[in-house]
Specification:
Blueprint (H helix, E strand, L loop, with lengths): L2 H10 L5 H24 L7 E5 L1 H5 L8 E7 L6 H13 L4 E6 L1 H8 L3 H7 L3 E5 L1 H17 L1 H19 L17 H13 L7 H23 L8 H10 L4 H30 L8 E3 L3 E7 L2 E4 L11 H11 L3 E2 L1 H10 L9 H12 L3 H11 L3 H4 L20 H13 L8 H10 L10 H15 L4 H12 L3 H8 L5 H11 L2 H18 L6 H18 L15 H9 L3 E5 L2 E7 L4 H11 L2 E11 L2 E10 L7 H12 L5 H11 L13 E5 L7 E8 L4 H11 L2 E7 L2 E2 L2 E10 L8 H15 L1
Parallel strand pairs: 2-3, 7-8
Antiparallel strand pairs: 1-2, 1-4, 5-6, 6-7, 9-10, 10-12, 11-12, 11-15, 13-14, 14-17, 15-17, 16-17
Helix pairs in contact: 1-2, 2-4, 2-10, 5-6, 5-7, 8-9, 8-12, 10-11, 10-12, 11-12, 13-15, 13-16, 16-18, 18-19, 18-24, 19-21, 19-24, 20-21, 22-25, 23-25, 24-25, 27-28, 27-29, 27-30, 30-31
């Protein structure tokens, strides 16, 4: 039986999870390698060599797709190439990944004296076969070298940890974390143990807490490798259900557990590396920073804030937030001892909050991104929940869609931090940052998160000491936190009905500006797909028009872009087919006829272009259609070829359906996630008086706009305007459609058939 067969057998045994799998797999690999070593050295009985497991294999952390890190150690003047080949090639023949080296003790030590990866790999070496004294010599010498050069190695290790964390992001708060390399992941645990081997850096209880977190993270890593059958440690959305099921839990429970474990690791790591950094500093201030007026009893030294021994938190109800504000302002960490004293001695806040307490809370949020780490420290110790008990339901709460980047709790903190940078745009900065912190506070609770959130905020506001009017504003910020982006991207902003509807919902300019800033802050915190120049311009234009409405001005008095403009009107008057491209805009002018929109959409899909917005109109039998596009395959768009294809399609010389089917086959979409909502079609009769607005919600895929627009053509309907939006794996497209004579779609039977056709197109 081969080693690969043995691995498959172990993988098929679902009872072998996490460390149990690693132990069973290591117990299979070790004797197999010993046999390979014995066979390879059979003809060299006098050769002084040893086979040593190093790195992850030395630790015994063998996930299904882990490398086998091996060192062939020898004393000879020349490397035993024949022996090495006799060991390495059988491993490769088994299809296993191998990290290998052949060195003498001196060569290994020389390399590890300069190379951090080599040095750390030797800290976990484990003898497998051959001369045990050879392995023991290297083990002793490597440990001695690590300790002798502790200061230098710790500095290198600290820098490498910081660089890796910056590149890989958070395990606790990202929706698709890297279990190994991310901040709070397995590599951070390894790094802390390497640091501990140089000098004692961990505090009481840290080693046990890290071991418990490691069991959670490693179990998920094993099941990720098992379910995907490939190398990789990023736990993507589509893999989370399978990994969770293998561990006997839902995907949400899995991700909450991973987030909790990673927060423990990150908490210990951050505090430990701060202390290591202070110990490595060439100059140490004995006084640090203090201010008797601004922060009585507080000292900030070497990046840590501590309380003087004379300070009793029991006598200062606002001290927790005062400490937090100073820590955020100085970009410092609150020391563990200080947090412990605050937990033990600080009183619970009285209700309703006094104005001074509420002011300190707002001051903390206004510190922006520097406040995030401080708030997480308060949350880790239970202090944050004293001020906001509702936080418990959003802590570590995943948002399992590709549109969002962070867990709910981190998303709220990021939104509040973004909002702090936008306070000059609003009349009430305090309500902006508070509304940003609370806008999704009900996610994770039963029911619609907006409706439930409004109910919660109606209770939170008075508890925090906000009066009835301010509480009503906070409630409305939650109620309408999606209003501006939804309208801006799905509705015709030149339609007066759109503007009056938004103005009526918002109520006044103060709320409008708060919602505009919240929209930007929320979108930036959501993810890269949620905010960009296009969306920002649409939201600004919507706010401009609603502001103008509040001032009593008519929409017709606002400057608008003529559609068609003078150039387009002149081309249309000529009666010829013209295709123009500029930047990422495609303009088509041709004779108006049913199905025109779908033909253009089909060609763009065939050419790998995604439509993000479209406008259309018809004058005297000529149609004008303008498409804003992006490319799936980079910035170099072959416009000459696309223009030729559009002409061919408009002249009936292109098999659009067949070509599109071929592209779909060539770029087969990934399997649909089971948590995606079913496709839906909605008619919005209140959105416009000049067209019927039809919204289509469906899974994104190649050619979906072509199929949808073809469904409109089937009923001889004109698409006047299209607002195209992709939210992660979903599309939310809005179409302003009329009959060919310009009348609205009012026939219930027609609507029912159109809905049937649209749902068929996107299913």
């Amino acid at each position: 039986m081969t080693l690969a067969t043995d691995r498959d057998r172990l993988l098929a045994d679902g009872s072998l999870r996490g460390c149990a799998f690693a132990e069973a797999w290591r117990g299979t690999v070790d004797p197999w390698l010993v046999d390979r070593f014995t066979a390879a050295t059979a003809d060299h009985p006098d050769l002084d060599v040893a086979l040593v497991a190093v790195g992850g294999y030395g630790r015994g952390d063998l996930a299904p797709a882990s490398d086998l890190d091996l060192l062939l150690l020898h004393r000879g003047r020349s490397a035993p190439a024949e022996v090495a080949e006799g060991i390495w090639y059988p491993i490769w023949d088994e299809g296993l990944k191998l990290g290998h080296s052949v060195r003498t003790i001196k060569e290994a030590l020389d390399l590890s004296s300069e190379d951090l990866d080599t040095a750390t790999s030797l800290l976990t070496m484990r003898h497998l076969a051959g001369d045990e004294t050879l392995t023991a010599e290297l083990q002793t010498a490597a440990a001695a070298q690590w300790n002798k050069r502790a200061k230098r190695f710790l500095a290198m290790l600290r820098d490498s940890v910081a660089a890796r964390q910056t590149q890989q992001g958070e395990v606790a708060f990202l929706l698709e974390p890297d279990l190994k390399e991310g901040r709070g992941g397995l590599r951070d645990i390894h790094a802390l143990r390497w640091a501990q081997a140089a000098r004692p850096v961990l505090e009481d209880g840290d080693a046990e807490a890290l071991a418990e977190a490691e069991r959670t993270l490693f179990a998920a890593r094993v099941e990720l490798h098992r379910s995907t059958g490939r190398v990789g440690d990023r736990l993507t959305l589509q893999d989370q259900d399978a990994v969770g099921a293998a561990l006997g839990m839902s995907a949400d429970e899995l991700m909450a557990g991973i987030a909790s474990a990673a927060r423990v690791v990150a908490w210990i790591a951050d505090e430990t590396w701060d202390r290591v950094g202070a110990s490595l500093a060439t100059s140490i201030s004995l006084l640090g920073w203090r201010s008797r007026e601004r922060a009585p009893g507080m000292v900030v030294r070497e990046g840590q804030l501590t309380l003087e021994g004379s300070v009793d938190p029991a006598n200062r109800p606002e001290l927790i937030l005062e400490v937090a504000v100073v820590a955020a302002d100085k970009d410092a960490r609150i020391s563990r001892a200080t947090l412990a004293r605050l937990v033990e001695r600080s009183p619970m806040p009285v209700e309703p909050w006094p104005e001074t307490l509420r002011a300190r809370f707002i001051d903390l949020l206004l510190c922006g991104h520097h406040a995030i780490g401080v708030i997480e420290a308060l949350d880790h110790t239970g202090l944050w929940e004293r001020y906001l008990p509702e936080w418990a339901s959003v802590r570590n709460r995943p948002q399992r869609n590709a549109y969002h980047r962070f867990t709910v709790d981190r998303h709220l903190l990021e939104t509040a931090a973004n909002a702090a940078a936008l306070v000059d745009q609003v009349e009430r900065p305090d309500l902006l940052v508070m509304g940003a912190l609370l806008h999704d506070i009900a996610k994770g609770r039963p029911g619609d998160h907006t409706e439930v959130g409004m109910e919660l905020i109606a209770q939170i506001g008075p508890r925090m000491g906000f009066d009835a009017d301010d509480t009503a504003v906070l409630v409305d910020m939650c109620r309408h936190h999606l209003l501006l982006p939804d309208v801006a991207t799905r509705r015709d902003l030149t339609d007066e009905t759109t503007i009056t509807t938004v103005a009526t919902a918002v109520g006044d300019p103060v709320r409008l500006h708060l919602l505009a800033a919240l929209t930007e802050a929320d979108s930036l915190a959501t993810g890269p797909a949620a905010w960009g120049t296009w969306k920002a311009e649409l939201v600004r234009e919507l706010v401009r028009r609603v502001d103008h409405h509040f001032e009593g001005g008519a929409q017709s008095s606002l400057s608008t872009i003529d559609f068609p403009n003078a150039h387009q009107a002149a081309v249309m008057a000529g009666g010829e087919t013209v295709v123009e491209t500029s930047g990422l805009t495609v303009t088509v002018i041709t004779a108006d006829r049913p199905g025109l929109f779908s033909r253009v959409a089909g060609v763009l899909a065939i050419e790998g272009l995604e439509v993000r917005a479209a406008d259309a109109t018809a004058v005297d039998g000529m149609a004008l259609e303008i498409f804003q596009v992006t490319s799936r395959f980079g910035s170099l768009i072959p416009w000459d070829r696309i223009t030729d294809s559009l002409h061919a399609a408009l002249e009936g010389r292109m098999a659009i359906e067949a070509r599109l089917a071929a592209r779909v086959r060539a770029y087969a979409p990934k399997a649909s996630r089971p948590d995606l909502p079913p496709p839906a079609v909605r008619f919005d009769d209140a959105a416009s008086t000049v067209a019927t607005v039809v919204e289509v919600h469906a899974r994104d895929r190649i050619g979906v706009l072509y199929k949808v627009s073809r469904a409109f053509a089937e009923f001889d309907l004109d698409v006047r305007t299209a607002k195209i939006q992709t939210l992660g794996d979903l599309i939310v497209d809005a179409f302003y459609v009329t009959h060919t004579d310009g009348t609205l779609l009012t026939d219930p039977a027609l609507r029912a058939e159109l809905e049937r056709s649209l749902l068929h197109a996107v299913t």
